[in-house]
């Protein structure tokens, strides 16, 4: 009996063990497979890059061209002439300072009133100073106001001199004529003002003037060359010069002119 019970128990245990190995009809459960694990999507952490700070672009290197050596063309950049006009141009080429000096000397030595006032004489000191003040002894310079050449002769002044003396000065095409026309105008002003205000005296000596601004023939003639005789006439009652700075500059050049080195 005991053996039967033992056999029955063994059979039962065998059946139970065999039944536990069946998952379902025709299916086998994989042995040793790990239980399914739900995998959550991993979020990749991104490190935010800092925004680039605005940078000021460095200035591009300047493309300056190398300065060329000065050419021999006419130029007002002569360091010894300080009366450069605000507006001017050149017509042709300047003559040398030596030729300019020769032309001015010839003009200052001419007698312009041979019959009416032969005693009236100019001097080189006056003519050279006026020319230096006006043009820096540049024969080809043309001011925007119309003045031209060594003596900066104005078109109206040229016409007046040519008509009054029956001449044909070519102040724009001939540097010697330009010097003659300017000096002739100085002589005409000397005669005009000498007769009108100085009892027919034509003495242009600086010794007749108390100062560069006093009412004397020399100062009045210089003033008239720049301002015009009509403007000087208008100031005659008060015996004042309408352009004292100009007169002072010319008078100073008469005493000490950079042109003296030429």
Automatic annotation (TrEMBL):
Listed transmembrane segments: none
Secretion signal, residue range per the UniProt entry: 1-25
Keywords attached to this entry: Signal
Compositional bias annotation for Low complexity: 61-77
Region named Disordered: 25-80
Domain spans labelled Transglycosylase SLT: 112-239
Compositional bias (Acidic residues): 42-52
Name of the protein described by the UniProt record: Lytic transglycosylase domain-containing protein
Origin species: Actinoplanes flavus
